[in-house]
Give the backbone structure.
Amino acid sequence: MAENAARGEARTGGQLLADALVANGATHVFAVPGESYLDLLDGLYNRRNRIELVTCRFEAGAVHMAEAHGKLTGRPGVAVVTRGPGACHAAIGVHVAQQDSTPLVLLVGQIPLNETDRETFQEVDYRRFFSPIAKWVTQIDEAARIPELMAHAFDVAVSGRPGPVVVALSEEMQKHLATVPDIGPQAVLPAHPAPDALPRLMAMLEKAERPLAILGGSRWTPEGRAAIRDFLVRNDIPVAVAFRRQGLFDGNSPHYAGDLGVGADAGLVRKAREADLILAIGTRMGEPVSQGYTLFDLAGAQPIVQVYPDQAEIGRVHRVALGITADLNAFALEAARTTPVAAPRWAGWRAAVRAAREEQAKAPQYEGELNLAVALQQLEKVLPPDTIFATDAGNFATWPARFMHVAAQQEFLGPTNGAMGYGVPAAIGAAITHPGRCVVCFVGDGGALMTGQELATAFHHGAAPIIMVFNNGMYGTIRMYQERAYPGRVSGTALTNPDFARFIESFGGHGEVVTRTDELVPAFQRARASGKCAIIEVRTNPEQVTNRATIAQLRAQAQK
Ligand SMILES: Cc1ncc(C[n+]2csc(CCOP(=O)(O)OP(=O)(O)O)c2C)c(N)n1
Ligand SMILES: [Mg+2]
């Protein structure tokens, strides 16, 4: 225990690990237990007043909750899983944290060291297993090394481009005694932009006529977000957000241009092509943002200023005119101190970009009793100003992305790597991280049953997110691709679903079914008033497979 540390007494490895988590600022641990880490569990028992141990039902759920915690707080989310099968289940969360640049520390209970390389029960070499998807993988074999290696794991997860670190914990090491002090995070000043970075950026802006900012990345602080908003708005620059980064910029601002990701509005994509200066702030300009690497010329014909915390990502695919290596918040605070361009020439351009966004957010007419676009717009008006949204991956997600806006004080959690099964656990992780806030999850009927068992975790820990299940009875996204490539040949994409309202009621939660436009808001209000974890099943029209096309239209296009 910490008192032992202060007295310089011996502690077990399990206790040192729990104390290392406290020393590095962890407040929550999301775990599925295993016999491989009984000593760490016991160490956490002693630290139960400092760390909430969240007992999950599936390791993928545990890592998604931890990842959501990391996205929201900027500090590494912590998940603990057992070796072999547990680590394999957890791998998806490591991939999310890698592609989403989220700080995450995954601890894995390991086999006894003296059985290594016999392919003993549940043995996996984690350095090899996780190396392509983790930022760093280590294994602790000596209790005395725990404070050093755990502190480094936390430091690596938040440094430069944030990401996942995996730490395997040899089984018997956790029982060994060591007398070593705790080590906390390395205090370090953030990387500031080079002295001539902002003057050069401003000089390029002075000459521009059609600038467009693309905001992305992770670990933005509230001050950083406010500062970058201030800089962009004072310079009257239209702002798009990168794929699933809607939380970075107030969607209601007249400067908001929409999200540049999978399913981006064609109007915004056209505007991005017309732009004569791209300010890529925090985004890697990856495949979703660059529309499959087609949007911008790779050799740099369209000038791009890229601001990124890791120099290795600057110009990685697209050669940029000006690369600025900097901590994003440090950059934003410096940018906010610059004098805005005196008489920007792009007021008309900014208005045109915004008009394109407003045009695409208008609700079209849809067949049937439920106009999902109108229902979501009505819902937006009654959501609390500090709502946290968590989304899964699938076509349903393009409806809120197109027709709703994430306001300045709201947060948005989504898997930029397109991992189905993320939404429900991310919502639970968010509700556990911020107990007072309203958490709304968007998930399809496919994703809802991929990790829906984690609802048990929500009840176990008193979390009450509201889960909106968009039920179209199919893996709709894949059906869409199928109809484009092989029209009329439905293969492997139809689903049979439970009664979702009765499913949540069986846990003691609140269930609602929505089939008409005007039912969504009252259903949401009853769900909120219940104070319980809730499912609102929204029965959507399967024919309306995207918000822009019906199955019949896709077939007709495919047969042309
Ligand atoms: C873990 C995982 N498995 C499979 C996929 C491929 N995939 C992408 S979307 C999708 C269907 C999603 O179905 P649903 O959740 O019902 O949403 P819908 O597309 O019907 O709106 C599938 C299978 C994926 N992205 N992630
Ligand atoms: Mg579906």
Summary: The pocket of thiamine diphosphate (ligand 1) is lined by residues 393-396, 418-421, 444-447, 470, 472, 474-478 (CB under 6 Å). DSSP finds 21 helices and 20 strands in the chain. The mean pLDDT is 97.
